[in-house]
Amino acid sequence: MKGSEVLEKILRGNKRFVQGERTGICNPVDVDLGAMVHFQSPIAAVLSCSDSRVPPEHVLDKKIGEIFVVRVAGKVPGPSVIGSLEYAVLNLKVPLLLVLGHENCGAVKAALEGKGDEVGGALGGIIRELEPVVKPTLMKGEDVAEVMHNAVDATVRYTMARIQELSPVIAAAVRKGELLVKGAIYSLSTSEVTVLEEEG
Ligand SMILES: [Zn+2]
Predict the structure, then answer these.
(1) How far apart are CA 143 and CA 103, in angstroms?
(2) How far apart are alpha carbons 80 and 85 in whole angstroms?
(3) Which residues contact 196 (CB under 8 A, 6 or more apart)?
(4) Distance (Å, rounded) from C-alpha 74 to C-alpha 115?
(5) Which tens digit of pLDDT belongs to each residue from 171-195?
(6) Ligand 1: distance of its center to the CA of 49 in Å?
(7) Considering the domain 3-195 in this protein, what is its CATH number?
(8) How far is ligand 1, taken at its centre, from the CA of residue 112, in Å?
(9) Can you spell out the DSSP letters for the chain?
(10) How many angstroms separate the alpha carbon of residue 73 from the centre of ligand 1?
């Protein structure tokens, strides 16, 4: 399946989730776990925030074995994240990498408030990485909700670009047309996943 076809399939799963017609992880009756003991063949890699309200298998209505998920607060692309995604791209040959941000992300909010130094520790590091990414969005929004939305959008785009900067092998897969990298935002209010439009 091509990356664009996988994206359509992923979005159909989110539609089922929104409409309350889940068939995936919540209803795994037709999953052959035995067939997966020695082998996995996910259709996509998904990098999302660790936020408990945004489990990709649920909100995209996917079954066990269907998506290779990497989760980290703020979906910041650190070395372990990049390494895990390289495994999905190189070994599992996924044709799609979806970076999934979400509405009201705590990490993004903390970055907007410039809390990195105050929080300190490793968590402060995550927030500090996002601070310069979200700073330009502070000037643009009409209200808090719009600033927040724009900031989440900016962090998704940052992560998409940064993964390819930090991983020559992932960048090469994109260049060769073997991998499609897409960004999307999950709305906590509507449960809908909206794919970000390409920047012109
Ligand atoms: Zn979050």
Answers:
(1) 15
(2) 9
(3) 153, 156, 157, 182, 183, 184, 185
(4) 14
(5) 999 999 999 999 999 999 999 999 9
(6) 5
(7) 3.40.1050.10
(8) 13
(9) --HHHHHHHHHHHHHHHHTT---STTSGGG--GGGGSS----SEEEEE---TT--HHHHTT--TTTEEEEE-GGG---HHHHHHHHHHHHTS--SEEEEEEETT-HHHHHHHTT-HHHH-HHHHHHHHHHHHHHGGGGGT-SSHHHHHHHHHHHHHHHHHHHHHHH-HHHHHHHHTTS-EEEEEEE-TTT--EEEPPPP-
(10) 6
Give residue 172 CA to ligand 1 midpoint distance, Å: 29
Position 71, amino acid: R
Q: Measured in angstroms, how far is the CA atom of residue 138 from the centroid of ligand 1?
A: 18
pTM: 0.95
pLDDT digit string, tens, across residues 147-175: 999 999 999 999 999 999 999 999 999 99
| Centre of ligand 1 from the C-alpha of residue 130, in Å | 12
How far apart CA 7 and CA 2 sit, in angstroms, is 9
Centre of ligand 1 to C-alpha 35, Å, is: 34
